[in-house]
Amino acid sequence: MTSTNSNPPDPATAASLVAALVALMQLEPTGEDRFRGRSDDIGTPAVYGGQVLGQALLAAQRTVPAERAVHSLHAYFLLPGEHAPIDYTVHRPRDGRSFSTRHVIARQDGREIFEMAASFQTRDDGIDHQDDMPPAPDPLAQPTEYERRLALGDKVPDDLRLRGLVSQGLEFRVVDAPDLLAPERVAPRSMIWMRAVAPLPDDPIVHRAVLAYASDNGLLRAAMNPHGLTFLRGRMRVASLDHAMWFHRDFRMDEWLLYVIDSPNAGGARALCRGSIFTRDGRLVASTAQEGMIRIRP
After folding, report:
1. Is 216 a catalytic residue?
2. Residue 2 pLDDT > 60, yes or no?
3. Which domain range does residue 262 map to?
């Protein structure tokens, strides 16, 4: 069995991992409402969709007043992105008294690989209610995704064991996680604890971008549960098709968040998954929805 230290990173290493994630979200201005972001290779054939989401959100945010925070985004993954720099162009359809709308196009080598519409709003008072957070065990009672992969040892080839794991600046702990190699058929639901492994900057824009990055991780797994499938078992072709997100309340991404996911439908080689994101004390801070392609190869 391959021996790798699975202990939590020491504070200096954790801070370095989080700094690298924050740096990945940063963009270089290349013109008026134009930006360029670099890409991180997590071992998947195409660039990780959450990275493009987070970078596109930051590109849009740079074109609106700081007092207007994102409250929703709707994105389409048009083509697989390469592990190469990505160019973002922001269009400004509307700036009203309370709301601003932005449209973002991501390109590589002249190809449009991604598009997103996002809406930003000033802070306003109004009615307030939310769903209750379901019961969940303590996050530290679950192993991290990284630890679960390491525990596979030589049951899985080295080049596959850690493939697809997103930035180690984030930790994900799946509640009642399925066996990665011999999963049982269970209900199309999942709960995931997640947080950054070290403090993030206090800028709330960074926390929203990192949550957008994290929100693309784990959504489609709920659709695999009733069919006894995991990314490491079964010859599947999986890709995110679109992604919607609504931001409800303030939060910190360096504190525990519970991602509660369900998949109400799968058919036609597509699966729909929905997510609710709660703080540890039960505040609903964001909601997500995604349709993904899931094809089973012979």
Report:
1. yes
2. no
3. 11-123+139-296
